[in-house]
């Protein structure tokens, strides 16, 4: 019985990691700039760049994913 529960928990962990990777990278491939859309069409390029840096959107995808996971776990 314990082995069954451990296998199910392992499978659950695998699925949760897979879903988090899938949702994160699907959001990455959307052709919309999240900083520009969050600030609106009247935002200047300096404001958009500052927002990208503030939100960590200028960092590599792996670093962004680690931040995404750490925020999910909080």
In total, the number of strands is: 0
Shape field: elongated
Mean pLDDT, to the nearest integer, reads 92
Provide the helix percentage.
over 70%
- What count of helical segments does DSSP give? 4
Task: Characterize the largest beta sheet: strand count, sense, and whether it forms a barrel.
Answer: none
Q: Low-confidence parts, pLDDT < 50 over ≥5 residues?
A: none
Which structural class matches the secondary elements? mainly alpha
Gyration radius, rounded: 17 Å
How many angstroms does the end-to-end distance come to?
A: 32 Å
Total domain units? 1
Secondary-structure element string: HHHH
How would you sum up this structure, described in words?
The two termini are 32 Å apart. With 74 residues, this protein is mainly α. The model has no long low-confidence stretch (mean pLDDT 92). The protein has helices at 2-28, 34-39, 45-55, 61-73. The protein has four helices and no strands. The chain has one domain (2-73). The chain is elongated, with a radius of gyration of 17 Å.
């Amino acid at each position: 019985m314990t082995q069954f529960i451990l296998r199910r928990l392992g499978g659950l962990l695998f699925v949760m990691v897979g879903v988090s990777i899938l949702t994160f990278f699907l959001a990455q491939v959307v052709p919309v700039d999240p900083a520009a859309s969050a600030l609106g069409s009247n935002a200047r390029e300096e404001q958009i760049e500052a927002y990208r840096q503030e939100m960590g959107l200028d960092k590599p995808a792996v670093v962004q994913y680690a931040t995404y996971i750490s925020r999910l776990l909080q």
